[in-house]
Every structure is written in structure tokens, then in C-alpha cells.
Amino acid sequence: MPFRALTYDVFHLGLYMVAVLVWTTLCVMLLLRARRQAADASARGCLSVGAIGAFVCLGLLLADVLRLVDDGVVLFGLLVFGAIVPGMAMTALYVRLRTQGEKTF
Known about the structure:
With 105 residues, the chain is mostly helical. Helices cover 88% and strands 0% of the residues. It contains three helices and no strands.
């Protein structure tokens, strides 16, 4: 069954792309929040979050390519640390920005 391996690889690539997009979105949200609070704010927070996301994705990719852990563990790690954790951080940041915006008006 050659299609099973191909489907798994496409699914894996999709999860890596989702993880990268979620971490990138979190970086952009933090950068916009910093710019909203102070016009001359540095982008250190955004860059550090991007670096954490890159290390998480790179670590999982290396573990996957070198077959250090089982495929199920890699998929679970991608879902949890690549999508769910930064998604929860984005949700908390969005709620915090919305509540701060309502207090100022």
C-alpha cells in the first residue's frame, strides 16, 4: 500500500505547516500588542516567541526524521506544542486585549 505512506507524509507536512502558522500568528499578535502599548517598543518578545516556536518545531522534526520517538508521540507533540498551547496563548492574549480595549472607552 504505497498510498498509506504518502497520506501519512502529507498529513505530517500539514501538521508542521499548522504549527508554523500558529506560532507565526502568535508572534504577530505579540508584536502588534507591543506596538499598541508603546510606539518605540522593541520586538524582543515577538522574536523570543518565534525562536521558541522554531525550536519546538525543529526539535519535533529532528525527532521525527531521526526516528528517535514513535510517530504517535511526534503527532501528539505537534498537536499539543505546535497548535494547542500557542492557540491557548493567542486566545488569552485576544481576550486580554478585548477587555483592555473596553476599559479605555
